Amino acid sequence: MATAAAPVSFSSTKETTNYARLCRLLVDVGSYVLRDKFDSIHPPTDLYKDLITHHATLQLLQRRKVLNPTQWGNLYPPIRTSVSSKNFDITLLTVLLRNICSLSPPATGWDALPPATDMSSEADIARVKYLRNTVYGHAEKASVDDATFHVYWQDIKDALVRLGGPAYEVAIDDLKNECMDPVFEEHYRELLKEWKRDDDNTKDKLDEIDRKLEELILKASTSTPLPKDVEEPTELIERIRQLYQTREGRLSPFPWCEDFNFDINDIFTRPTIVRRDKTRRTAAEQVTSITGVFKPHSGIFKPRTVLIEGEPGIGKTTYCQKVVYDWANGKETDPSFPKIKLVLLLKCHDLSGDVWEAIDDQLLPRNIDEKEKENFFKYINANQSQVLLILDGLDEAPSNCTKMFSDLVESRELPKCHIILTSRQEGSVKISKFCDTLLQIEGFVSDNSHNYIMHYFKDLKAQGQNLLMDIEQNNELGELIVNPLFTAMLCLVYEDLKGGLPLSKTQLYLEITECILKRFCQKQGLSHNNDDLTEVFKEELEQLGSIALKALKKDKMHIEDCEFPGTTGKSPLFEFLSVQSNSSKRRSHTCYRFSHKSFQEFFAGLYLSDQILKGETDFETLLANERGNLKSLEPVLLFTVGIICHKSENGAMSLLHIIIKKANLFKNCMLQNFYLCFAFKCIGECSTENSGLRSQMINLLGTNLELQELVISDNSFPIKLFVEALQVNSTLTLLIIMVPLFGDQFIVSLANMLRVNKTLTTVRCMTNGFVGAHNVQQLADSLMVNKTLNDLMFSGNAWGNDAVRILADYLKRSESLSSLNLNFGDIGDAGATALAEVLRTNTTLNSLGLSNNPGIGNPSVMSLCEALKVNTTLSSLDLSGTGISDAGVLSLVKVLKTNASNLTSLLLSDIKISHQSLKSIAEVLRVNSTLKNLKFEGNKVGVGGAKSIAESLKTNTTLKLLSLSRNNIKAKCGCLFSDSLKVNRTLESLTLAENALGSRGAQLLSEGLRVNTSLRHLDLSGNSIGSEGAESIAETIRVNASLTSLKLKGNNIGDPGANKVSEALKVNVSLEDLNLSLNGIGTAGAESIAEALKINATLTALDLSFNVIGDNGAQSLSEALMTNVTLVYLDLCNNNIHSAGAQAFDELQGYNNALKMVSLARNSIGALDDHGDQELYEVPIGNVPLLPFSHYFSVQFTHQRSFVVLVSKETLMLPQQ
């Protein structure tokens, strides 16, 4: 029997609606604005005449296929006078503005983001396109979070209003809060996609024209004769080719293995190279060939300087070798690659003078005649556009070469010469902004590394296949073979060991070390008799480790030969180092480097492990002394623990105990701390091949850990190990896991833990992927045994009807669970009906959350309503984002009208209902006597619905919380709610965020707020109230003595509005929580707020994130907090604050005993100065997606005794304990 096709789904979320709104703003308003701009230059009455004038220009674009037939027909219709810009699409308008409107490209070109100071029409046209591309970067998921949405919206709005005039401002503000049908959301997403595709096609055609012009120019330039005093240095160029063919034609990365060298053509595997946006360093596109690095891109039609960044060992030098080797052999290049007659490869580490000295030193014959050399240099100067200069290893150059590099990339020296530079990112920060193109080598993707391995084992294919299988089973190896150098090393060791690899990283590096030492003994004719060669050569390896550690602390990869005093060339030390290629004729000393940074870290760890085992270094003291370097030294410390464990399991247990002790110093901080993460990494490293030790270490951690609450937000956190440890833990009560977990494996671990854990009361986590019925049953069985858990939440698509039926069966017998949330799942009517049946008899559950399960429809809601009539305990129900409609709402209304249930909280946001249902909900508020909280967001309430609800509030005497965000509530509704607030005496919280109240609506609402005495919380975020609306609200809080929380986020109040609010704060006696984020507040506004903080005595939480207060504003606030004794939490995330501003807060801790947390994340903060006796720990906490922190989250820090500065998404600064 055939089944009916599933209906097309047009479901939406807040984030997808954000994206669709941005699409609509760009496509709809963008078209109108660009058309207005075009019409102002070419008035509609004379358009046909103007197009005749520009016919030749446009015809050329048509022939080049920049204009398609439809666009051409719209430009030149059969009746010429009927032409109208109303028929021009946005792509055509953009082409016309650029080509026939006498507009000059901005300094950065048409395709790049102009500087903020450039407010010209040309800049705004370019800005709109750039912002279009930025928004389109979210197309894959078609979603944008709130914070990003507000930033994008404001940037686009500013550009469009400047272009089109102030008349567009109101329309744009209305559009921001207007509800969108999911079908229309999809429509605008497709329109933006079409615009981007059409624009890209146009750009490709224009790029093709530019390339052909460049070829013509180049052809003309090559035909230009050399100056009379310069001869073609044919013989010398040929000698340089021969040098490259010989020197760069073989890869020999390991000096200790003389037979390990390959012809570059046999073994070279192209790494992944991506072009990155210079502003945000985000990936823009992949480079498809090694000579495709000069390809034109946004705003740069003919790149001259290319910077290639990458980690050590990732393949930067090999890339350079391949480029020059291929040039020397006349290999074909990418079409975008310039026509080059001469390539000059210079190794930056060997630079000792200017570029001319380097060319002489590294490339020219030792016996070259001075006259010949002078002619060669003149030839380079006369043929710069046909010369490619490659500078390999910018980060390794002597410090006195900085000016030379700057002169080259800034066109002060060899201004027409093409240049490729390579560097680690940290070594090229100052130079990168001047380069035309920024690329990054990301190493091997899976296929690349697999190809490399099979190339290596081309005569031993079985071994190659076995190694690939081992890699597939070892995640650590899978990560390491991204690095080409490590892949080569792995092949060598695997061959030497005749297959088979250890599971732990420490053991793998010990095996590599043993293998290298064996080869050393063989070369030197030394007998080793299967001895432990790391012990035989212990003294030499300790020396190498000590040098490695010192270099790491200085962030150095190179080691000078002077650091090996008294060491001969026959020492095994040099078996682990690559001799840095010395192409200099002048520098006589030798320089070494580790083949890969991980080997440097391994030997540093080997050294520390010996020091600890000999009692010369105390591990706890080591952690304290290196607290500023914990993040960078983590791999070293992990090797240290792993090597000690290899020698002594008891020793490893002792170290773990010390790490746990450190972790407990942060028991009052909910975020995972460095020591906790590191403890689990140590367990993983020490016990991969020893299950007994693994159990001991997990038991030690679980029983000694003193954390009470933990939020895990880092994808790399070893959650499975942590859940195992909780089986014996007796302190943790709350666990929130904010990273997605996959299916069965986690559920089984969780079930095993809950069966025996006696302290956890709350578990909330995200689960994705299928969860089998058997494993859900295990979880249900564990919940039956567990008597302490009362709050359980699972979010994610792992939960469907079958899983819910099993949980429903458990709820029939549950004696402890009071809150169950199964959000964002695949639950349908069958699952929800099963839960409804349980509610008839269950006597413990008081909160049930089923939000964002679109499969839940009217039938199951009707079943829930029937259950609510007999259930006596359920007080909170969340059906937001489900598939219910008017019939389902009507069923709920009937129950609520008769007061037949005990529901006090109902969440019904983002559902598809009619205006009639809105009236029914309003009627409930008139007669219901139990409902205290109603969340009704994103339901297209509009003016009519708002009127009904506002009228009901006049008589309602029970509702305490009402949330009506995203409901297209307009300015006139301010009067309606104002009238309600004048008479209502019970409502404590009102949320009207992301509507369209505007300044007038805020003014009207303020009248009721001035006399209301019950409202505690008011949220007007995202209502475009501006400075005028802020002034009205400020006048209110001058006299209102009941409001404790006010949110005005994203209202563009600016410095004038901030000033008005600040003046009110000086006299306000009730406000505790104020949110002014995303408001364009600058230094002046921050200074006003600072003055208010010197006087205000009630405010405890202040959110100023996503403004532009800068260092001066931060310093003013810090100065105010010297005397303020009430503020507990301050959020200054994303405020253009640098080290000077951060330092002010760092120094504040000695003066302010009330402040518990300052968030300075997403600011450009470098290193902070020393702190004397109050020195701070810099504790890596992983990726924290919670920023900016909510007031709720900041409350978790209020019981903390010490001061916290959150300086980035990855680092928490805490005082020394």
UniProtKB/TrEMBL annotation:
<dbReference type="InterPro" id="IPR041249">
    <property type="entry name" value="HEPN_DZIP3"/>
</dbReference>
<dbReference type="InterPro" id="IPR032675">
    <property type="entry name" value="LRR_dom_sf"/>
</dbReference>
<dbReference type="Pfam" id="PF18738">
    <property type="entry name" value="HEPN_DZIP3"/>
</dbReference>
<dbReference type="InterPro" id="IPR007111">
    <property type="entry name" value="NACHT_NTPase"/>
</dbReference>
<keyword id="KW-0175">Coiled coil</keyword>
<keyword id="KW-0547">Nucleotide-binding</keyword>
<dbReference type="Pfam" id="PF13516">
    <property type="entry name" value="LRR_6"/>
</dbReference>
<protein>
    <recommendedName>
        <fullName>NACHT domain-containing protein</fullName>
    </recommendedName>
</protein>
<feature type="coiled-coil region">
    <location>
        <begin position="192"/>
        <end position="219"/>
    </location>
</feature>
<feature type="domain" description="NACHT">
    <location>
        <begin position="304"/>
        <end position="424"/>
    </location>
</feature>
<dbReference type="InterPro" id="IPR027417">
    <property type="entry name" value="P-loop_NTPase"/>
</dbReference>
<dbReference type="Pfam" id="PF05729">
    <property type="entry name" value="NACHT"/>
</dbReference>
<keyword id="KW-0067">ATP-binding</keyword>
<dbReference type="InterPro" id="IPR001611">
    <property type="entry name" value="Leu-rich_rpt"/>
</dbReference>
<dbReference type="GO" id="GO:0005524">
    <property type="term" value="F:ATP binding"/>
</dbReference>
